[in-house]
């Protein structure tokens, strides 16, 4: 058993809700009080469970190897984004009358991460210009066919496919899984870059500046501004990453602030600028508002 002290302004239940949201994610299992996930830590594959016990998040190893304890703990911290102190962000929300309700209704929601950069880029490409339900369906088809799996207590748990595996595929093969030809080419191309060590999370993080990270990611075929910023938000934990062009984000701003359905860049930057250092979190909370429109104040 490993223990992680819970940060202030943290809700495990809110995080579990966000991980679940009634979508069919094949890379973890969410129960009423836990998250179960299969991971590869330093080449050791481990199935673990995260639960809440008092002031701690508790990690129980369910099956597989005993991984490096620090690396597994660091993985869970990154997954649940336990590092930031959200108090300054909540103070900024309280200053905006249309957003202040979020500090109570979404109290303790953390920016749930995708620690693996290859997975986060593939997932964001899968989600381009289709609804989430279909994106999860194609993700499951890919994972079930090409990834490592482990059965525990009658349930099957998967890792995300390794880039070396996907790099050997052809677009025609992925087309059989209902991938568009374009997305098939993009994912295979990205897999080749990772397999050949031409790109890595470590290398991108050494750039430090968010603009430089985005510029480097956008060089990759299939990665535009939205995809780069999504990966920067969910994997690289860039505090000011924003998913420009995201329909969900725009719908939330239309409902809460009365913005046009396609707001201008200038209007978006004017709205987000006061949240310097917390723009990614505001992006997340605006997404969260879409699932509970009754909570949001009415436009008058």
Please tell me about this protein's structure.
- 45% of the residues lie in helices and 14% in strands.
- With 300 residues, the chain is α+β, with helices and mostly antiparallel strands.
- The chain has three domains: 2-83, DNA-3-methyladenine glycosylase AlkA, N-terminal domain (TATA-Binding Protein); 86-109 and 237-300; 117-149 and 158-234, Hypothetical protein, domain 2 (Endonuclease III, domain 1, Orthogonal Bundle).
- It has a five-stranded antiparallel sheet with strand order 1-5-4-3-2, covered by helices on one side. The protein has a two-stranded antiparallel sheet with strand order 6-7.
- A hairpin with a 2-residue loop joins β4 (44-53) and β5 (56-64).
- α13 packs across α15 (279-289).
- The radius of gyration is 19 Å and the shape is globular.
- 30% of the residues are buried.
- The model is unreliable at 293-300 (pLDDT under 50).
Spell out the blueprint of helices and strands.
Elements: E1 2-5, H1 12-20, E2 28-30, E3 34-41, E4 44-53, E5 56-64, H2 69-79, H3 87-95, H4 102-105, H5 117-126, H6 132-146, E6 149-152, E7 155-158, H7 163-166, H8 171-175, H9 181-195, H10 201-205, H11 210-218, H12 225-234, H13 247-257, H14 265-272, H15 279-289
Helix pairs in contact: 5-9, 5-12, 11-12, 13-15
CATH topology of the largest domain: Endonuclease III, domain 1
- The CATH architecture name of the largest domain reads Orthogonal Bundle
CATH C-level class of the largest domain = Mainly Alpha
Which structural class is indicated by helix and strand composition?
alpha+beta
- Return the average pLDDT rounded to an integer: 93
State the assembly state of the protein chains: single chain
Domains, number: 3
Order of helices and strands: EHEEEEHHHHHEEHHHHHHHHH
Strand content: 5-15%
- Please count the helical segments: 15
